[in-house]
Design goal:
The complex is a heterodimer of chains A (237) and B (542). Chain A has 237 residues and is α/β, with parallel strands linked by helices. Chain A contains 5 helices and 11 strands. Classes of the chains: A alpha/beta (237), B alpha+beta (542).
Chain lengths: 237, 542
């Protein structure tokens, strides 16, 4: 079966976030960007499925500017087979909304017909935690979010997912195809080996516009202002 | 989300904690990816890094033998501290005089737990004036003093031998000024290196040196020992990046050479005397240092190499193809990876190979740097110079890969006792010393590991045994120093002489040179109260 993995290019988690002077958004010019950590875990899980011969092809998809290609290349270096890049110049941290992303992914799913979609549980820039759930809703597929462990049945007709919830761990079984979102402890992403990094350069990345899928990425939400949290005051002595 | 204890897989927990405790015995290291993301997304209770920071103390139950006993040292003709002296200090530094023996053990023992002094008094001044008053008094009373920064030195130079009064610069941690355009930082000597880096990072600058002990070491100590570190090949030595110093001399005089000028050829460059003189000619109290711009893009590659000759070929290619963006070139042999796997449960990011090189690039344009790095990697991989490897571009992976190299010193301590050597050698004979040494001590040592700043020709050769073994020491020394001397190498490339290596200075310096050093010492510190028993031998060539 094919596995579709979403990867998002975000500000590197270790970077100290700065707000733009006009308070319109987070400063991203000349700031280090990397793959969203949860997306990395999603890619790792998909590649492991391929290694276990559960999946036969892993497709990495990203929505973003030209540089999103680097993020897709990282996924390819980790073991994904090909990439899909949906180009947009809109800000992916606040203008492109989870619903729009879900609609694009839904259209891509109709085209590619994967057996599973694996996404990160949320992106560390907008912390929405909505895309996976909305995608499942649009496709009318089962969803298993905050995955701690994913086990595909031998007949590839269903998947058992252990989810991390407030009260502990919940084990779900869902028929495939399904949407799974990755949580922190699902796995430890691998280091891409040098030979794989070299090979990844030759793997194909197909470029599309959101309009090609009949989706308008325009935001339905207006960001009024972005501010730093108030400076911490000293406590009482 | 509620704060609940989520069931963690043991393997993951160890990795999280291993990632928390990065940096040799230090308490304030940058918290790693898993703990930060963890704290943000799944707040759970887990042990704080403080507990693991004191790793070196908790590892061995007994304190090491007193240096004066183990090495049979004679106490100098200094006065002994009296209650009047303590009263004077109490008046000078109210509440900052420590005399409790329990509290003093940490200050009396070095990080490697090999040297232990017997100081009865610790002073914690906050200003240059206070240090000046202390030294003036001690000079008049003929009391020996020992300046101490982060106590991360590796040659026993940062702890007393007898009852020298410890003068700690830890409270002198103010940053005085930063000039963003020239990149000049002026600060007190007690500023911790990592704290300076964090402060500078907001202004787009960075410190010109970096070492594994950055979470604890202080800039005054770094300068007094002319610390080298991981980025010397890119930013040069402290002799070049220090612009000015304020020093308290042996008689209490405050010597103000705290210039912030990049160029100033007016008279003898006095600050150079204090850089690397290990606190024996004066106590550094304020520092003016030139800081380079923080690079926009950093890439780190760890490559697996099948033999040492290929390490040197990789170095040559790196210098040629990465040139101006090359910021670090380190090497490790395979026992190093076995060591961190066994003692710190770190994982090897690539397959097991006989040698590993770590190459870091730092530049102002990510796209250009990646292109250069890719061309370099294609070439070395294509020509078979390198057989495996990985490249990290995001901060988590960069930190994890650096941790393997930076935590080697810490990992060695877990074996028990470390015989640590820091040698400069010509690259052609570099690894031969390791081969000869391994052959010599393999039957009685736990392990022999070699790693170092290959780009600078600096080898760190370390041998371990469960406890101090005099027979093993005899097999190592003076063999290692004679071997080094034969190839005109340095017996201490960057660690300095401190207490442990002062008697071997003649292997790397001529008699006349050492005589001149001794004359300078006598001139600047006639009573010899500044950090005695360190750096210079009593007799040449003993």
């Amino acid at each position: 079966m094919k596995v579709l993995v979403g990867v998002k290019r975000v500000v590197d988690y270790a970077v100290k976030i700065r707000i733009k002077a006009d308070k319109s958004a987070v400063e991203t010019a000349s700031v280090k960007m990397s793959m969203n950590p949860f997306c990395e875990i999603a890619v790792e899980e998909a590649v492991r499925m391929k290694e276990k011969k559960i999946a036969d092809e892993v497709i990495a998809v990203s929505i973003g500017p030209k540089q999103a290609q680097e993020t897709i290349r990282t996924a390819l270096a980790m073991g994904a087979d090909r990439g899909v890049h949906i180009t947009t110049d809109a800000r992916t941290d606040q203008e492109v909304q989870p619903l729009a992303v879900a609609k694009v992914l839904a259209a891509l799913v109709e085209q590619e017909q994967p057996g599973m979609v694996v996404l990160g549980k949320q992106a560390i820039d907008d912390d929405s935690n909505q895309t996976g759930q909305m995608l499942a809703g649009l496709l009318d597929w089962p969803q298993a979010t905050f995955a701690n462990e994913v086990t595909v049945a031998d007949d590839k007709a269903s998947v058992q997912v252990v989810r991390e919830i407030d009260g502990g761990l919940q084990t779900l079984s869902a028929p495939l195809p399904a949407v799974v979102t990755a949580d922190l402890r699902l796995n430890q992403p691998r280091y891409a080996t040098l030979p794989n990094i070299m090979k990844a350069k030759k793997k194909k990345i197909a470029k599309h516009k959101a309009a090609d899928f009949g989706v308008d990425l325009a935001s339905t939400v207006e960001v009024v202002s972005v501010e730093d949290p108030p400076v911490r005051q000293a406590g009482q002595k | 989300m509620a704060h609940q204890r989520l069931p963690l897989k043991i393997g993951h927990l160890r990795q999280y904690l291993a990632l928390i405790n990065t940096g040799s015995g230090c308490l304030h290291r940058t918290v790693s990816f898993y703990t930060q993301v963890h704290a943000k997304y799944c707040p759970i209770q887990y042990q704080s890094s403080r507990r693991f920071g004191l790793l070196s103390r908790s590892m061995q139950k007994e304190d090491p033998e007193l240096t004066s006993v183990r090495y049979n040292v004679q106490r100098g003709n200094f006065a002994r501290i009296s209650s009047e002296d303590v009263a004077v200090f109490e008046k000078l530094l109210p509440g900052r005089v420590i005399a409790d023996p329990e509290e003093l053990v940490g200050y009396n023992t070095d990080w490697l737990r090999m040297c232990r002094g017997n100081s009865q008094l610790l002073l914690r001044p906050k200003t240059t004036e206070e240090i000046s008053e202390i030294i003036k008094y001690c000079n008049a009373r003929n009391l020996a003093v020992m300046p101490q920064g982060g106590n991360t030195g590796l040659v026993g130079g940062s702890v007393p031998v007898f009852d020298e009064i410890i003068i700690s610069t830890s409270l002198m941690n103010k940053i005085i000024s930063v000039d963003e355009i020239s990149g000049t930082l002026v600060c007190q000597a007690g500023c911790v290196l990592e704290a300076l880096n964090t402060h500078l990072s907001d202004l787009g600058l960075m410190m010109p040196l970096d070492l594994g002990a950055k979470g604890s070491c202080q800039i005054g100590g770094n300068i007094s020992t002319n610390a080298g570190g991981l980025r010397l090949m890119r930013y040069g030595s402290l002799h070049g990046s220090v612009l000015g110093l304020e020093v308290v001399q042996a008689d209490g005089t405050v010597l103000d050479c705290l210039s912030t000028l990049r160029k100033d050829n007016t008279g003898y460059d006095l600050k150079q005397l204090f850089i690397g003189s290990e606190g024996t000619l004066g106590i550094v109290t304020s520092v003016s240092i030139l800081c380079p711009r923080k690079p926009q893009s950093i890439n780190l590659a760890i490559l697996g190499v099948s033999n040492f000759e290929n390490c040197l070929k990789a170095l040559k290619e790196a210098k040629g193809m990465l040139g101006e963006i090359l910021s670090a070139f380190e090497f490790m042999d395979s026992p190093c990876i076995d060591l961190v796997k066994a003692n710190l449960q770190l994982t090897n990011p690539i397959s097991d190979m006989p040698f590993y090189v770590l190459i870091e690039t730092a530049g102002s344009n990510g796209t250009h740097d990646e292109e250069k790095l890719n061309l370099f990697l294609e070439k070395v991989l294509g020509e078979g110079i390198v057989e495996d490897g990985t490249v990290a571009t995001d901060s988590t992976k960069i930190q994890s890969i650096w941790a393997i190299r930076e935590r080697l010193a810490e990992a060695l301590l877990h074996d028990g006792y470390v015989y640590k050597y820091d040698i400069s050698l010509p690259l052609a004979n570099f690894y031969d010393l390791v081969i000869d040494m391994r052959e010599r001590v393999n039957d009685i040592a736990t392990r022999t590991v070699a790693y170092g700043h290959l780009g600078d020709g600096n080898l760190h050769l370390n041998i371990t045994s469960p406890t101090y073994d005099h027979e093993l020491l005899e097999k190592i020394e003076p063999f290692i120093y004679e071997w080094t001397s034969r190839y005109n190498g340095s017996i201490s490339a960057e660690h300095g002489l401190g207490f442990k290596k002062k008697d071997f200075i003649h292997f790397s310096k001529t008699k006349k040179a050492v005589e001149l050093m001794q004359q300078i010492k006598v001139m600047m510190d006639p009573k010899g109260i500044l950090n005695p028993y360190k750096m210079l031998p009593d007799k040449y060539g003993d």
